Amino acid sequence: MSCSDVQRGRAPGGPGLRRGQRARRWAQERAAEGSSELRDRSFADAGDRGTACLSESRSHLAVPCACVVCGVQRGQITESEAMTQPSCDRNLRLWVSLCGLFGSLRGTFVTRNSRPNIVLLMADDLGIGDLCCYGNNTVSTPNIDRLAREGVMLTQHLAAASMCTPSRAAFLTGRYPIRSGMASAFNMHRGLVWLGGSGGLPTNETTFAKLLQDRGYRTGLIGKWHQGLSCASRGDHCYHPLNHGFDYFYGMPFGLLSDCRPSETPELHRRLRITLGVTTAALALVPVLLLVPTCARWFVVPWGLVLAMALLVLLFFLGWYSSYGFVRRWNCVLMRNHDIMQQPVREERVSSLLLREALAFVRRNMGGPFLLFVSFLHVHTPLITKETFVGHSKYGRYGDNVEEMDWMVGKILEVLDREGLANHTLVYFTSDHGGSLEAQARGAQLGGWNGVYKGGKGMGGWEGGIRVPGIFRWPAVLEAGRVVDEPTSLMDIYPTLSYVAGGILPVDRMIDGQNLMPLLEGRVRHSNHEFLFHYCGVYLHAVRWHQKDCGTVWKVHYVTPTFSPAGAGACYARGICSCTGDVTFHDPPLVFDISRDPSESHPLSPDNEALFDSVVQKVEEAVRAHRRTLAPAPQQLSVFNSLWKPWLQPCCGNFPLCGCDKEDDMEPSV
């Protein structure tokens, strides 16, 4: 089916804006290089920088140079510009030498063969409608907005899953989480639920951190991991970030939960815990009732039976309370590399500590190249916010938390500017998935706003749970202010980083992401994605078809969650929507034209869309082809792997008396 079949009077996705001179020349050089040179490129040492400066100058490639020669201030220098300076015409060799010397001092010398520093910023549970640059004019996010103004903003950027663990697994590996076993078949275990569980990102998966580490990057992760910790013993740390390509880790290997703050309503398996508590109370009555016949002198109940029942009730209680009764101590842990720094974490200080570590990592690795992945704890409940920002926004605790996160982004950008790294650093901002609509307490909304998009966190294929912010800034390469309205994915970061770092993608596995650089630079008009598959756990709920010849994006839903109460826009009664069981199957499927109906409010049918059957048939063929590429993988989120195991529980001290605060005498200064 071609675009000529669709009579919509709608122009295809608009072409990229006219590029600035240096970005265009950089793109032309990259296109002419050929893939072999891209794969093998490496940093020139200080002695070779002069030669690089000369060759780039002679090829008319604009080169930001750190030196000031012949009255030309730091910025772009081409051969023609240099030759207009009389003294430069006579002393080109001196110019080259000075360029080579000073270009290596602060890491601001950019050539087409140099590799940028990379800073990845990922929010937790942030709604796309929570940012000013995405249409919210009531929340103050000036620093993230600055990134959007100075870079490229993606308006159809999509997570591979609407839950933390599978989405982050796909982000790290460039692969659908079902391929790595990081997708669940159970509603209760949609993500990793215990730091002392035995599931995690498999050790045979290659993350983008590992690719860049092999290319000579210094790699660091600051913040949330949530990809598992140990396999067989407490200290093996097989799933630890340091075993997945990161040289340095400081943060929470699990992440924040409402349970991390004693005053908050428990979040982890809240309904199950209530059920277990009520069941324990009911069972505790059994030994008491067994005493009634003896006390009433009806007949004698053996004391052994009474004691046995009491012991069984006690064991049942200890069996579940030993885990659920100490969630804060077991899951809310702060680590530096393999060492526990706080257990449980002091939630009021953790944001300052993480920011301190992020800034320190940049300063330690200014010589570059480095990869810094800042995985914010914001804006997940319990919305821990510094006193300075409390009451700062119009939207209560959630808005305050968003604005504090924006301030932290500003601090990271500030250190890049101060150290002269901004022009040579690719900065990317996103969220792991959409905002949580069900996060509420005492009438206040504690989750994000997903704009006009239907649904939210945990809701399979609905747009609100998977459409996320996507902002790239690279001043030396990407044109400021561009907006791209093409389907892109968090999985695309993997091949994109491999490309800009000169790495080679693994050839022994399917990589689902696509290199975004041609699209970001404006060298192509359309995304390489034709089909994107939207899973809820291991269940395929929806498929997106990008009809490139006319820019139309179709969305086909086979399964949707059943909202509760009836008529609501989320699963408020359950706390989170189901992937299976309490869902609605659609035959024929629901079909939407996302190009014209991004809120998925007007389903199409054969009566109002002549191409309905053709679209459904095309998507079904794509689903069959996609499923042929899937191979069995060990289920990391199985029931057994999701159980809390005392022998895997990280512990600072002697188990079960775990607890420490090694940051007590180290006040953060940012």
List its salient traits.
670 residues, alpha/beta, Alkaline Phosphatase, subunit A, 2 domains, 12-stranded mixed sheet, 4-stranded antiparallel sheet, 20 helices, 22 strands, 17% strand, Sulfatase_CS, transmembrane helix
Report the sheet with the most strands, covering strand number, pairing sense and barrel closure: 12 strands, mixed
CATH topology of the largest domain: Alkaline Phosphatase, subunit A
Low-confidence stretches: 4-112
Give the strand tally. 22
Q: What is the percent of helical residues?
A: 25-40%
Helix vs. strand class: alpha/beta
Top-tier CATH class of the largest domain: Alpha Beta
Q: What's the mean pLDDT score?
A: 86
- The CATH architecture term of the largest domain is 3-Layer(aba) Sandwich
Radius of gyration from CA coordinates: 27 Å
Number of domains: 2
Distance linking N and C termini: 57 Å
Folded structure, characterized:
This is Arylsulfatase family member H. GO terms for molecular function: arylsulfatase activity; metal ion binding. Keywords: Calcium, Hydrolase, Membrane, Metal-binding, Transmembrane, Transmembrane helix. By secondary structure, this protein is of the alpha/beta class. The protein has two domains: 117-256 and 332-660, 3-Layer(aba) Sandwich (Alkaline Phosphatase, subunit A); 270-325. The chain contains 20 helices and 22 strands. Strands 3, 4, 5, 6, 7, 8, 9, 10, 13, 14, 15 and 22 form a twelve-stranded mixed β-sheet that branches. Strands 16-17-18-19 form a four-stranded antiparallel β-sheet, with helices on one face. β20 (653-654) and β21 form a beta hairpin. Mean pLDDT is 86; it is low at 4-112.
